[in-house]
Amino acid sequence: MAAAGTSIPPSVDPNRTAVIVVDVQPFFTDQELVPPAGEVLPRLRAFLDEARDAGVLRVFIRAEFPKERWTAVWREQYGPNLEQVVAPGSPRMQFHRDFEPELGDLVVVKDRYSSFFGTDLESLLRVRGIDTVVVAGLVTDLCVSSTARDAFQHDFHTITLADCTATGSLARHEASLETLAVGFGRVCSSADVARAWKAQAVPERGDAVAARSS
Q1: Which of 111, 116, 70 is nearest to 93 (CA)?
Q2: Has this prediction a pTM greater than 0.85?
Q3: Residue 198 included in any domain
Q4: Would residue 96 count as lying in a domain?
Q5: 20-59 tens-digit pLDDT
Q6: Are 34 and 166 in contact (CB under 8 A)?
Q7: Tens digits of per-residue pLDDT, 99-128?
Q8: What is the DSSP letter of 202?
Q9: Residues near 205 by beta carbon (within 8 Å), at least 6 away in sequence
Q10: Number of folded domains in the chain?
């Protein structure tokens, strides 16, 4: 079953696709990641530029945890020391300087792993006619995976970018991608999606005239 979910969906129409950029924040980018952040972040930056040029909606997700959401369950899992680090207003929870949203982008703030849990992300996508999401960011096996799983279970065509995400170890990274490919949509490279967008690009005016004349 490892081959399942390794290709892009039949259509990644730029008008019906959104890129969900998960948690590219100093708290995560400063960690020791595999693949290294120095490789992943430039690829993701280039892909987001491709998305903008193709007219694809970009959604920037930012995690932060208000005091009331730092529950006993989360304290038991992570201990008390992170509470202030991940609180609203913490400099480590702002967007990474190279991944600040631009005019026309959407911003969604979440306080759990999945970008869909407790947020209005689904309605924001539906009202814009989005039926396909491309998920990337940090980290592969937690917030990226949770977001991709929920996207699929909300009936979005779901693509996770293998080369634009990372986590704490190669084993965790690869196992997460394999699970997503088997059961939660597609896993492919950023270049695969960018090529699909370019293949659907509107032809140049001269080409369109020639096509009508032939």
Answers
A1: 111
A2: yes
A3: yes
A4: yes
A5: 999 999 999 999 999 999 999 999 999 999 999 999 999 9
A6: yes
A7: 999 999 999 999 999 999 999 999 999 999
A8: P
A9: none
A10: 1
pLDDT, position 210? 36
Residues 6+ apart with CB under 8 A from 41: 24, 29, 96, 98, 99
- State the amino acid at position 77 in one-letter form: Q
- Specify if 42 maps to a domain: yes
136, 133, 131: which is closest to 189 by C-alpha?
Answer: 136
Contact between residue 69 and residue 109 where contact means Cβ atoms under 8 Å apart: no
Structure tokens at 12: 């990644």
Residue 174 is part of a domain; what is its CATH number?
3.40.50.850
The pLDDT assigned to 199 comes to 86
Measure the N-to-C terminal CA separation of the chain; round to a whole number of Å. Answer: 46
DSSP type of residue 134: E
- Please tell me whether the peptide bond between 139 and the residue prior to it is cis, using omega within 30 degrees of 0: yes
54 vs 36, 59, 71, 82, 197, CA distance in Å? 27, 15, 41, 39, 7
